[in-house]
Write a structure and sequence with these properties.
- It is a peripheral membrane protein.
- GO terms for molecular function: ATP binding; ATP hydrolysis activity.
- It comes from Melaminivora alkalimesophila.
- This is Peptide/nickel transport system ATP-binding protein.
- The protein is α/β, with parallel strands linked by helices.
- The protein folds into 2 domains: 19-107 and 189-277 and 287-329, P-loop containing nucleotide triphosphate hydrolases (Rossmann fold, 3-Layer(aba) Sandwich); 117-186, no CATH class.
- The chain is 29% helix and 22% strand.
- The protein has 10 helices and 11 strands.
- The chain has a 7-stranded mixed sheet with strand order 6-7-8-3-9-10-11, with helices on both faces. Strands 2-1-4-5 form a 4-stranded antiparallel sheet, with helices on one face.
- A hairpin with a 2-residue loop joins β1 and β2 (35-48).
- α3 (125-134) crosses α4 and α4 crosses α6.
- The protein is globular.
């Protein structure tokens, strides 16, 4: 018998701590009949090898559009109108579609909120996983199947050989999402964009997936951007967090620092909306008003109409500052430590 076929990694692993993705001044606008929707309006992000970056904000804040922009899935009437996105030193803004197709699924993968956006309902799981591997490299079906089994085991799926023979409708929602995550891992990507992949799952399955994701990043050096509205999830998963509001990052830093000592009133509001043992039986604090329409943003600070600390100074757009090493902030009236 010959030696079993061994599939080499498709991408050279990034050195620990090396910047995998650097986003500077990213602007993604949608040109509609009603006007220009500035869904992403000057976003700065950086994520390093083995690191999980949490991107947090309410619905409509631009989180998902930021993720779609990174992976090059913006369709008309939207387009990237400014900024830079460098993946391991390579500029993605303006890159040819052929180059982006080569990177998608191979070096940069995306996990969607609905696993059925990834899975074909009429094909068995093994067919879909083998095709995902063979689309990027020449290898035998047997070797591709072995890698698929390994990926399913990595995300904690019991009896992976049996699951390979199943159709998506035969699996539970949590199991389908695990399969979708496994498909994202098949080609050993250097960067994964996860767009609220556990929102529709029960808390037990969610906790298991979060554990597997964190373990994956630590062991393989994969960089991950985890997009969510749930700051409680991010606090236990991400190394760093960026809080997004109305298309902009309003606060960013190490997760522990931001959660324990938030400086932006919006971040404080998100934290206050999380139920805790101390608030059992009490009404939760809520942020007044609603997220503004991106077609009609108020002048100056977009959070001004909902902020209890707003003043005339907030009629001017706040510029990003660094109140401490590793922290960034856009606010004229940041919270003092005792208020945080």
């Amino acid at each position: 018998m010959g030696k079993p076929e061994v599939l080499p990694p498709l991408a050279t692993p990034s050195a620990a701590g090396e910047a995998v993705l650097q986003v500077q001044g990213l602007k993604t606008h949608f040109f509609t009949h009603g006007g220009v929707v500035k869904a992403v309006d000057g976003v700065d992000l950086e994520v390093r090898a083995g690191e999980v970056l949490g991107l947090v904000g309410e619905s409509g804040s631009g989180k998902s559009i930021t993720g779609f922009s990174i992976i090059g899935l913006i369709d008309e009437p939207g387009r990237i109108v400014g900024g830079s996105m460098r993946y391991r030193g390579r500029e993605l803004v303006g890159a040819p579609e052929r180059e982006l197709q080569r990177l998608r699924g191979k070096e940069i993968a995306m996990i969607f909120q609905d696993p059925m956006m990834t899975l074909n309902p009429v094909l068995r799981i093994d067919t879909q996983m083998i095709e995902a591997i063979q689309a990027h490299e020449r290898t035998s079906a047997a070797a591709a199947r072995a890698r698929a089994l390994e990926a399913l085991a990595m995300v904690g799926i019991p009896s992976p050989a049996e699951r390979l023979l199943a159709y998506p409708h035969q699996l539970s929602g949590g199991m389908r999402q695990r399969v979708a995550i496994a498909i994202a891992l098949l080609n050993r990507p250097q960067l994964i964009i996860a767009d609220e992949p556990t929102t529709a799952l029960d808390v037990t399955i969610q906790a298991q997936i979060l554990y597997e994701v964190q373990k994956l990043c630590r062991e393989t050096g994969t960089a991950m951007v985890w997009i969510t509205h749930d700051l409680a999830v991010v606090s236990g998963l991400a190394d760093r967090v960026a809080v997004m509001y109305a298309g902009r990052i309003v606060e960013a830093g190490a997760t522990a620092d931001v959660v324990r000592r938030p400086a932006h009133p919006y971040t404080r509001g998100l934290i206050d909306s999380i139920p805790t043992r101390a608030t059992h039986g009490q009404l939760l604090r809520q942020i007044p008003g609603m997220t503004p329409s991106l077609l009609q943003l108020p002048p100056g600070c977009a959070f001004r109409p909902r902020c209890s600390r707003a003043s005339e100074a907030c009629l001017a757009e706040p510029l990003p500052t660094q109140p401490a090493p590793g922290r960034s902030l856009r606010c004229w009236h940041p919270l003092e430590p005792e208020q945080a």
